[in-house]
Amino acid sequence: MTILRSCILLMVFLPLLAACGGRSYNGSLQCAPYARKLTGVQLKGQAYTWWYQSQGKYPHTNQPQKGAILVFRKTSKLPYGHVSVVKKVKDSRTIIVDHANWDAQRINHHASIVDVSTRNDWSLVRVWWPPTNKLGSRRYPTYGFIIPGKS
C-alpha cells in the first residue's frame, strides 16, 4: 500500500471514528461518551449515574420521545448501567435506538427496545441482541428518559 493511499484512508476513516464516538476515557468504545456525542448533554461518568446527575439540569419523563436518552439501572449484568438514544418511537411499547457497546465494542444503529413493564412506564425493557438477530430474553430495569437540550 502506498503512503498516499494510507494517508487517504486515514483522512476518510478517522473522522468516521470520531463521529461514531471514537474511544472514551478508558480506551474502549462506551455507551455514555457515544450518547453524549449524539445528544450534546453535559453529563459524564458511569451511565447509571446520569439519571441523578441530570436532575435539575434536564427534564425527566417515563415516556419515550425522539432524541431522549433511556437510562438503564445498574445491575449485576450491567455494573455501570447503560444509556441509549431514542431515534424513533414505533408505538407505545417499542422504540428504535442507537447505542454503543451493547454488543461489545460495536455501535448498534436502529436497535429495538421493548417496554415489558406491567404499567407501560418503561421501567423494565428487553433489548435487541445483534448476535442472535432477535430481541434478547433478559429484562433490564431503567430509570426513564432524559430530555436533552431542554434545561
TrEMBL record:
Gene3D superfamilies: endopeptidase domain like (from Nostoc punctiforme) (3.90.1720.10). PROSITE patterns: CHAP, PROKAR_LIPOPROTEIN. InterPro entries: CHAP_dom, Papain-like_cys_pep_sf. Residues 6-126 form the Peptidase C51 domain. Keywords: Signal. Residues 1-18 form the signal peptide. This is Amidase. It comes from Commensalibacter intestini.
